[in-house]
Design goal:
Blueprint: H1 6-19, H2 22-25, H3 31-45, H4 48-56, H5 58-82, H6 87-98, H7 104-111, H8 116-142, H9 150-153, H10 155-177, H11 179-207, H12 209-212, H13 217-240, H14 245-256, H15 260-270, H16 279-304
Length: 306
Amino acid sequence: MLERFLLLWLLLTSGVAYFFPEPLVATKVTLPWLITITMFSIGLMLPRDEVRQVFLRWPTVFAGTALQYAVMPLLAFGMGKAFGLTGDAFIGIVVVGCVPGAMASNVLTLNARGNTSYSVSLTTAATFLSPIAVPLVLALALQSKDGVDVAILWNASKVLVTTVVVPVLIGHLLSRRFPNLETHSQRYGAIVANLAILWIIAVVVAISRSQLEKLRVDLFGALLAVNLLGYVAGYAGGWGMRLPEPMRRALTLEVGMQNAGLGAALAVKLFPDQTGVAIAPAIYTFGCMLTGTMLAHMWARSSGSR
């Protein structure tokens, strides 16, 4: 029920956070730990064969990952400029474009009759490369922005190593060492990860309530454009790489669906005095879940009608 209706739960928990923000604001300090718990749970659920697949088919995996880390930051930067975003809103949309793909893309790839194994391989590669890729593209995108100290962005590398890569590694190694743990993690890991993401977005909504009341339509338009053009770029990239249709679908969802929950927590950590930065990743979480679900449903129906 939690995973199947995640979008509904996001709306409900965010609504509660908006109208009753005080209790959640007090838990702001837990955001890095929530990300750590999420990534540890993902590591527990990561099948050992998937890590092997990353290296066995490295050309298509790393080509897809390179496409994501090249296209999404450019789209975010370009749409931010095109829609006239400034200040926290612009930094926030750039953060959205820089983070790795969302784990939800793996589930939606399965629903879309896509290649789930390739999707998981892409997510795995993007996650492990994030401590290098994310700070690099953030620095390139934001170096010209007034009031942004690019030097602090390199702190993102340390944050991503300690809260993303290391927990995934520890979780994966523990599941390999203790088979019973791996069995239980397949049952409960997704629940823990999704609950953590729900809490992260709720906290972001609570601490950003005053900025949410002043939101302009242009931010929604820019985020929607990034999301939809990301899907187009992913499918076109798969076509250019001559991937079969199931792998194209996996790449499409992986590129267009960013780990916005991680982006929101990262924004709070890197820009503690600019709470508005985390709004764009929080909104993107809703948007990409909605459009991704619709796209997966469309593909599933088209596959079923053949």
